[in-house]
């Protein structure tokens, strides 16, 4: 089911781009024109890395490198122009954020509002470990090794260790 | 073991644990439920759109650009907008975009109160001219953004998109939805009042 | 077999489901054997009615009955028969009916396989399943009627999105749904246990096979979906962390945790409350995931309907199911007996750690998926959360999980010493060190190196575990074979599933080193990529049943030897004015050569073609690993001891817990 919504055919209805994508080749692919690529392989790699951080605005969670939408293609060109001028990756991303806001970043910046998002890995782990430790602490008795009865039960369950 | 068998001394412990489990779980689920309900309700009325890009353009001066003429109008540039003494609406449109065509009627009514300047976005000049001939021309001036590059500087992600420019060239209002929606028109009217238009 | 008959059968199923939700439940409460005994019959009745209803819809699709709105919108006369049938679930209404049908099958399966269950427990489990099914069937009947008629009936339908006309996608939904819906059974067991106020080892044992079965289907469903995007979408991507994918990953993660914690319940009567919560949580995630996806909150535009009225109905259903079960949980769980004691370093302890890490990853994916709409609602700001975030936030949690996966299964129960176990893993540790050395040289990027190393560790330690159990090389081969025969299949299954994880992780890590090239070539032109020579030798136009295809012939040579000839093509469909690209993939099991043909440029006399060529090392291992995981699960299920309903419940509360 997931795949139905995937990728290429998902554009915002509102924009009318839908019309284009239904009538034009829906299943074109990312960089569909070799002339788009930068001649310097190092710069092309930098451009691809930047592109992977930028969201195709009219698609579902795809980067502009992965999208066939017209706007994604335009943005890819812009990225490559900036890279060719020797700008740093951060400069190119800042240029994009200035125009489209943080929506264009596939990895949101750490701010107070995204603290919970970025803190979730640590928070979840802490909650898990702290509650496990608390439950262990509450049990005063140190468990004995397996008793013979328990051992027999486990053997019966097919796990005799 | 069922709860009836629990001795009465433990009853307080059980109650405390019930709260300990129930409050965060049900609270979390409840908050999510209410939030989803608000989202769905907002999506129905159009007041909430989780997919809005919200390009951060309002409160900024217009970007630097120059747009060539698009028949039947004349193109314009940053300086033209900065030299304005009354508000103007900038509207990005295209002949291949159905919502833009749906919006034309509303634009034709609106241009009686507020000058509208159009930008033909990634459109063949003859197609854009054909649309305006057919549907009527609401635009006082029209520029052509054949490559869609000026649109990127404006933070446009699709057409139609509209911007209200205050005298002096400041973007004071922006909508990524068509002006055929009464909510969008109301919001434009409020913005217009604020700049004394 | 008219559509009206289908709708009637659906309504009948709904009546059965309601009866199934009420009567056996009352029976269990009043200890009325006659009422409880109604449960299997009602479940079977519901299933028969659902099958009849589903067949009516299939019949309408096969006979091109375009007076049915659903068929009209999604089918056409020229569509191949296979896709007429599979197209039934390729749309919102049909997929809900399929969902209900699978739920009906689950209910009937519990009725059929659960003969050894205590009658009250069985009545309650079937009753809960009936209640959930009734909700779905009402949803289907009121807001998503697949049998709606159109008048006058047009001569031809609007056709199906050609992207969906693919065998991989045709069978993807049923498998994925079986996974989602399968978790309804552990959920029903959890609710029934809470109602009874009793969770014991026998309960753990009854729940586990259902959880494992659902998990196998979900694993296959996710892998199939990912494989589909790999070979259909045509640019070598396989996982995009898109909300729809995440919606299936979240229950998979919590379901994996459930499968493991249920082992502790069964074997040691510990983690009981937690396991019940996981069972409730996993099904809740399955439900809310699929429905949030359909509500339009997470996705902007998609093939399924985005009707807010449906959203409200679904939300009410979710509120009832999730809110109700959590309330019951909070009320009843504190009075459940706490289970057997264990030391932090023990098998139980390692499974607790497994659960903490899996649930942390689950929480990260959930937060990342839900953050954008919540930001938008609370702050009016929109953000995107995509691949760079998820990679950075989940992999550091996955790596310790992989480390513990290695030695956790070898720890003794209750109280263990780490050192003797680690000492037995020296071969695996050496292999891991060697793998680390190789990957540092061969791979670029810290995370791929770490993941590939961990993959070798997982595979190595799982093999060590099995060889230890068989005492390979310590006793004679025939004795080892004897041991293998007496070793439960579930032990092999677990090791196999872990090896599958290792294989997938290795595939993912090495796949990150994929290379690609986009070129514009004339026929006859050669291109080099990854040591292979790719030559476009021919492009021709071939008609298909409902499309025209531009088929390329690409010869691939390695050191001058012809390796393979591939035929990527581009199809233009008549009915929807769409084109699709058909990727051509040549695999040797270790890597994929992946070719796509794009636009034609230039004059017809001397055209050039855009080609996109990929070299994807170890790509097949990603899905092969998932298949191994599912096979491991299936092997465990085939274990006599695991078989559904096998155990008898101990009459007294328990011996083990009484210490």
TrEMBL record, chain B:
A Pfam family the protein falls into: AhpC-TSA
Keyword set includes Disulfide bond: yes
Transmembrane segments: 20-40
Cellular localization per UniProt: Cell envelope
Main subcellular location of this protein, as a coarse class: other
Keywords: Cytochrome c-type biogenesis, Disulfide bond, Membrane, Redox-active center, Transmembrane, Transmembrane helix
Keyword Nucleus in annotation: no
Descriptive protein name: Redoxin domain-containing protein
Protein species of origin: Acetobacter sicerae
């Amino acid at each position: 089911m997931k795949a139905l919504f995937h990728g290429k055919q998902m554009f915002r209805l509102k924009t009318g781009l839908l019309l284009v994508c239904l009538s034009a080749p829906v299943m074109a692919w990312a960089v569909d024109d070799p002339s788009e690529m930068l001649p310097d392989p190092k710069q092309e790699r930098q451009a691809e890395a930047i592109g992977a951080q930028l969201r195709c605005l009219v698609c579902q969670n795809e980067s502009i490198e992965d999208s066939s939408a017209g706007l994604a293609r335009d943005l890819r060109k812009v990225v490559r122009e900036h890279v060719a001028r020797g700008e740093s990756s951060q400069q190119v991303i800042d240029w994009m954020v200035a125009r489209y806001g943080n929506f264009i970043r596939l990895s949101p910046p750490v701010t107070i509002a995204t603290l919970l998002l970025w803190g979730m890995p640590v928070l979840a782990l802490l909650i898990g470990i702290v509650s496990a430790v608390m439950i262990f602490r509450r049990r005063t008795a140190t468990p004995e090794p397996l008793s013979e009865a328990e051992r027999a039960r486990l053997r019966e369950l097919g796990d005799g260790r | 073991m069922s709860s009836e068998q629990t001795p009465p001394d433990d009853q307080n412990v059980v109650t405390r644990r019930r709260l300990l489990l129930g409050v965060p779980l049900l609270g979390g689920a409840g908050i999510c439920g209410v939030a989803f309900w608000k989202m769905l309700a907002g999506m129905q009325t159009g007041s909430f759109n989780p997919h809005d890009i919200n390009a951060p353009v309002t409160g900024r001066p217009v970007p630097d650009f120059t747009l060539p003429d698009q028949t039947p109008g004349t193109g314009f540039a940053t300086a033209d907008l900065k030299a304005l003494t009354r508000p103007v609406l900038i509207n990005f449109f295209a002949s291949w975009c159905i919502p833009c065509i749906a919006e034309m009627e509303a634009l034709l009514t609106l241009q009686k109160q507020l000058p509208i300047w159009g930008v033909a976005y990634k459109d063949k000049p003859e197609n854009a001219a054909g649309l305006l001939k057919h549907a009527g021309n609401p635009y006082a001036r029209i520029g052509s953004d054949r490559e869609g590059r000026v649109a990127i500087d404006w933070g446009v992600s699709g057409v139609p998109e509209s911007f209200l420019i205050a005298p002096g060239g400041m973007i004071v209002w922006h909508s990524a939805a068509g002006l055929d929606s009464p909510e969008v028109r109301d919001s434009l009217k409020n913005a217009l009042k604020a700049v004394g238009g | 077999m008219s559509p009206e008959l289908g709708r009637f059968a659906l309504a009948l199923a709904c009546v059965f489901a309601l009866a199934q939700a009420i009567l056996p439940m009352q029976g269990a409460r009043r200890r009325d054997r006659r009422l409880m005994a109604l449960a299997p019959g009602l479940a079977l009745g519901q299933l028969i009615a659902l099958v009849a209803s589903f067949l009516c819809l299939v019949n309408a699709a096969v006979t091109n009955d375009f007076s049915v709105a659903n068929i009209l919108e999604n089918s056409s006369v020229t569509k191949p028969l296979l896709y007429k049938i599979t197209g039934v679930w390729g749309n919102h209404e049909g997929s809900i009916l399929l969902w209900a049908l699978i739920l009906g099958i689950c209910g009937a399966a519990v009725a059929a396989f659960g003969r050894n269950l205590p009658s009250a427990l069985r009545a309650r489990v079937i009753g809960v399943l009936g209640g959930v099914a009734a909700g779905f069937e009402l949803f289907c009947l009121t807001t998503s009627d697949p049998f709606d008629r159109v008048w006058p009936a047009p001569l031809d339908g609007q056709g199906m999105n050609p992207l969906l006309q693919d065998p991989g996608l045709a069978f993807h939904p049923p498998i994925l749904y079986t996974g989602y819906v399968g978790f309804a059974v552990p959920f029903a067991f959890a609710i029934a246990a809470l109602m009874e106020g009793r969770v014991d080892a026998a309960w753990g044992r009854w729940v586990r096979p259902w959880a494992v079965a659902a998990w196998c289907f979900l694993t296959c469903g996710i892998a199939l979906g990912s494989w589909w995007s790999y070979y259909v979408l045509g640019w070598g991507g396989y996982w995009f962390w898109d909300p729809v994918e995440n919606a299936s990953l979240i229950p998979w993660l919590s379901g994996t945790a459930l499968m493991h914690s249920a082992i502790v319940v069964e074997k040691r009567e510990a983690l009981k409350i937690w396991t019940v919560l996981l069972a409730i949580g996993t099904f809740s995630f399955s439900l809310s995931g699929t429905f949030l996806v359909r509500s339009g909150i997470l996705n902007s535009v998609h093939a399924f309907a985005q009707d807010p009225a449906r959203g409200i109905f679904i939300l009410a259903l979710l509120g009832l199911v999730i809110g109700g079960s959590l309330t019951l949980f909070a009320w009843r769980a504190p009075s459940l007996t706490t289970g057997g004691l264990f030391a932090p370093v023990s098998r139980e302890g390692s499974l607790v750690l497994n659960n903490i890490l899996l649930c942390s990853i689950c929480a990260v994916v959930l937060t990342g998926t839900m953050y954008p709409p919540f930001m938008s609602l609370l702050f009016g700001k929109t953000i995107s959360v995509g691949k760079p975030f998820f990679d950075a936030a989940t992999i550091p949690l996955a790596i310790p999980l992989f480390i513990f996966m290695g030695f956790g299964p070898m720890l003794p129960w209750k109280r263990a010493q780490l050192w003797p176990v680690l000492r037995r893993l020296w071969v695996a540790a050496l292999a891991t060190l060697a793998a680390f050395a190789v990957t540092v040289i061969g791979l670029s990027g810290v995370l791929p190196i770490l993941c590939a190393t961990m993959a070798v560790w997982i595979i190595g330690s799982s093999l060590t575990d099995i060889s230890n159990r068989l005492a390979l090389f310590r006793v004679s081969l025939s004795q080892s074979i004897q041991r293998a025969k007496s070793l439960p299949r579930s032990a092999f299954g677990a090791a196999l599933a872990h090896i599958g994880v290792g294989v997938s992780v290795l595939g993912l890590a090495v796949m990150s080193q994929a290379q690609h090239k986009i070129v514009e070539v004339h026929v006859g032109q050669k291109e080099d990529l990854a040591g292979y020579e790719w030559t476009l030798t021919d492009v021709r136009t071939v008609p298909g049943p409902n499309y025209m295809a531009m088929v390329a012939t690409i010869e691939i040579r390695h050191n001058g030897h012809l390796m393979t000839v591939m035929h990527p093509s581009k199809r233009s469909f008549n009915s929807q004015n769409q084109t699709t690209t058909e990727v051509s993939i040549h695999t040797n099991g270790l890597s994929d050569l992946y070719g796509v043909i794009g636009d034609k440029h230039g004059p017809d006399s001397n055209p050039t073609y855009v080609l996109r060529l990929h070299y994807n090392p170890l790509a097949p291992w990603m899905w092969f690993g998932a298949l191994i995981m599912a096979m491991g699960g299936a092997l465990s299920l085939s274990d006599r001891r695991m078989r559904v309903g096998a155990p008898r419940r101990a009459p007294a509360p328990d011996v083990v817990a009484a210490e």
